Structure formats: structure tokens, C-alpha cells
Amino acid sequence: MSLRAAALLLADGRFPAGGHAHSGGVEAAVARGRVGDLDDLVAFLRGRLATAGLVDAALAATTCHRAGGAGVLPWGELVAEADARQPSPALRASARVQGRALLRVGRRAWPGPILDELACAGPDGTPHSVVLGACAAAAGLRPGDAAAIAAHQAVAGPASAAVRLLGFDPLAVAAALADLADDVDRVAADAARTAGGSAADLPCGSALLLELGAEDHAAWEVRLFAS
Amino acid sequence: MGSGKTALVAALCRSLAGDLALAVVTNDIYTTEDADFLRQAGVLAGERIVAVETGCCPHTAIRDDIGANLEAVEGLEERLAPLDLVLVESGGDNLTATFSRGLVDRQIFVLDVAGGDKVPRKGGPGVTGADLLVVNKVDLAPAVRADLAVMARDAAARRGGGPVVFCSLTDDPAAGAVTSWVRAQLAVPPG
Ligand SMILES: Nc1nc2c(ncn2[C@@H]2O[C@H](COP(=O)(O)OP(=O)(O)OP(=O)(O)O)[C@@H](O)[C@H]2O)c(=O)[nH]1
Ligand SMILES: [Mg+2]
Fold first, then answer.
1. What residues does each domain of chain A span?
2. Which has fewest Cβ within 10 Å: A44, A70, A135, B113?
3. What is the per-residue pLDDT for B190?
4. Across the interface, do A105 and B31 touch by the CB < 8 Å criterion?
5. Cα–Cα distance between A24 and A27 in angstroms, integer?
6. What is the pLDDT of residues B28-49, one digit of tens each?
7. For the domain B5-186, what is the CATH code?
């Protein structure tokens, strides 16, 4: 089986998991003049994909791999590895907000022990990448699917936020995303390869400007997106 | 947008907080303007008011993707239990804004007389489907030459006789008629 309907559902921007309220750092980048035209946006998305995108995809793939196997699920270890790769408190918090939103709908969509256990695991919530991997496992998907969805979302969400913020031609943005598709696939494949290994060895791609921008953004008085 | 939703929430708090445990969730487009206004108005303790951020799309947060609002409501219920009533204000939007039944038990839609007397005729899910239609700012009807009788006739036709309240929240800051409707609804099981 190559393409699974459950994967399309989980990847769909209209899946009600709260993504619409987050810009993935685009709002902060726009305000600081780093994203103003379509070329800037493409450069931003490439950078985001190679850093935060790769880390999220690897975490999602590893979580999916482990949650799909037998034995006690190492949520604590995965959450610690996710946090170790995220120095920004604002982004840690936003990853948890998005993780809680995804878990809420995931438990309705794919009820069962995997997501029930995850719901009990962290009192303040679990980062989105880990929840995504668990949802993929609960939906019967594979680590490669989880990685592909995470990599896709790393660019698709910010791209649609940029359309709303800057009034870009949505067709031009769609074309830019199509141009990035091979890169998204490559990042997903790299991430999927890490799934069977040690969580401590997961990739660590820090994106300083995303992190600093998120700290700044969280302190704004007026903003359109939650992050 | 600007029809008097926050003014109505404030009015309901004023007239209901005496004997009911209330909380409010606001959905602002920017910042936490409405929540701040309600806190400053002093109609409810600050801890009973929370704001949800909606990412440019206020109707999405109350209709298609309600998780953030559910989380806000559940957080209030957890912190302040037991609550009798949680009021959720939508972000200022347009005639197509409507609440998901997964989020609210009853929906009140607020129209502004100053928007023109043709608005009820235009319909839309808020006008036709809300449990209560409030036509606010009747005090402005002469200034904008709005014919309230036309609004009443069109609203009745669009709503198949569903309840409509005409009011001016500046003249009646306790929103008497809406308060009575809300009290009557509290006696009916949710759903
Ligand atoms: N004349 C008049 N003004 C009113 C009345 N009700 C509210 N207003 C005013 O209308 C303006 C907008 O009221 P809000 O309650 O903030 O409206 P809102 O629907 O919450 O606005 P948004 O949340 O921004 O969409 C304020 O200046 C109110 O004082 C009324 O009955 N008559
Ligand atoms: Mg308001």
C-alpha cells in the first residue's frame, strides 16, 4: 500500500487540530522584514524544512515506530529529546498547545490505548511532533508516513499563513510548495531512516532566527497568529 | 463586527453574575481586546475571562476547528467548577459566522441596526439558524433611517418564527429581554 487515506486525513490542513492559528514563525519573520516577497518565503520555508522540519519529522517517525511496536511506550524519553532540541520556551509551549489540540481530535478519530496512554503521560501536554507520531501509529500508519506528514506541515502551514499575512497570490504559493516537494520528500526520507535508532541520536537542527523570533512574537501585544 | 457582542456579554454578566457562576471566553482577531475590555469593565472577576487567539480566521476557531475554544472552556470549568454558564464571544466577523454545536449549546447572533435594515433579509446561517437573534442599537434607527418593522418582518420570515429581540444596550445596559431568554434556556437541558 503506497498512499493511505488516514495519512491524507492527518496531513490535511483542514483536519481540526488547531494548526490554522499558528504561522510557524512567519508572522515574526514578516514583522522583522525577513519575509516580504515570494523569494523570501521560499528561502524561509527551505530553512524551516531543513531545521525544525527535519527534527519534527524525525521525532514523529521515531514515536510512530515505537508506538507501533510492543512494550511500554517511552513517552518521557521522547518528550525529553524533543525539548532538548528546542531551546525556545515560547516554541516549547506552542508545540504543546498544538500537541494537545491534535491529541484531542486524534483520540476521537483513532481511539485506543496508544493515544489514551499519551493523554495520561504529560500533565502540561506533549509536543506536537510526538503526538503526530503517536496519531500516525494509532491510525495504523508507518514511520515514513509520520515523517512525510510532519515535513509537509513544516512548510504548508507557514505558507498558508504567509498568504493571509502578505496577500500573496495563493496559486504562486502553491507552485512554490510544489517546487519544494522533492526537498520535503528527501527530508521525510532522512527522518524516516532515523526511526529505528536511539532517540538521543535524532537529528538536531536548531533554527536560531525561528527561536529568537518566537520569543519576540510571544511578547507582542498585537498579533494575528498564536505563534 | 462591532454589533455589540462584547456589550451584550458585559450586560449578561451584570445581570446574571449575582446568582449564577459565570465565565467568558473571547475570540479576538488581534490581541485580547475584548477580554481586556470586560476585565476593565469589572463585570466579572478577571480570572473568569480568557481569550483565545484565532490566527486571522475567527470563524474557523468557533466552527471548523474548535479545539482551542474547547480547551479554554474546559480550563475554566476545571479551575472554577462548578460553573452554571460559559459565554463564548466570537471574533468580529460577518453574516456567515456561526458556532459549532460541538462548542456551544445555544447561539445568540447579534445584528447592528446601523448596518442597515436590509441585513435580516440577506439571511446567512447566523440570522437563520441562531437560537436567538438580537437586533441591537435600535437607538440609532432614526439616524441611519432603518425601518425596524421591515427588520422584524424579514427576521421573522428568515427564522420561521424563531425568537428575535430588538434592543439598545446603551439604553438598557442590563439587556433585560436577552437575560430573560438566557434564564429560560438554563432550565432546558443542553442540546
Ligand atoms: N448606539 C449604540 N451603541 C452601541 C450599542 N451597543 C454597543 N454599542 C457600541 O458599539 C461599539 C461596538 O460594541 P462592541 O460591544 O465592542 O461590539 P462587538 O460586536 O463586540 O465588536 P467586535 O468584537 O469588535 O466585533 C461600542 O462602541 C459600543 O459602545 C447600542 O445599543 N447603541
Ligand atoms: Mg467584541
1. 3-218
2. A70
3. 73
4. no
5. 8
6. 877 778 999 999 999 999 999 9
7. 3.40.50.300
Of residues A185 and A72, the one with the higher pLDDT is: A185
CB distance from A105 to chain B under 8 Å?
yes
ipTM associated with this complex: 0.79
Of B29, B31, B64, the CB nearest to A14: B64
Residue in B closest to A22 by C-alpha: B55
Judge whether residue A1 has pLDDT over 70. no
Closest-CA residue of chain B to A226: B53
Cβ neighbour number for residue B155 with a 10 Å cutoff:
23
pTM of this prediction? 0.88
CA A38, CA A223: separation in Å to the nearest integer? 21
Per-residue confidence (pLDDT) for residue A81, from 0 to 100: 96
Domain boundaries, chain B: 5-186
Answer yes or no: do A18 and B64 touch at CB < 8 A: no
Q: How many residues does chain B have?
A: 191
Q: Could you tell me how many CB contacts below 8 A there are between chain A and chain B?
A: 58
The ligand 1 atom nearest the CA atom of B91: 23
**Domain A3-218 of CATH type 3.40.190.10:** no
Backbone angles phi, psi at B111, to 5 degrees: -105, 155
| Alpha-carbon gap: B6 to the closest alpha carbon of chain A (Å) | 19
User: B181 C-alpha to center of ligand 1: Å?
Assistant: 20
CB proximity A107 to B under 8 Å:
no
End-to-end CA distance of chain B: 27
pLDDT of residue B93 exceeding 90, the answer is no
DSSP per-residue letters across B69-97: HHHHHHHHHHHH-S-SEEEEEPPS--TT-
Please say if the pLDDT value at position A53 is more than 60. Answer: yes
Q: How much of chain B exceeds pLDDT 90, in percent?
A: 81
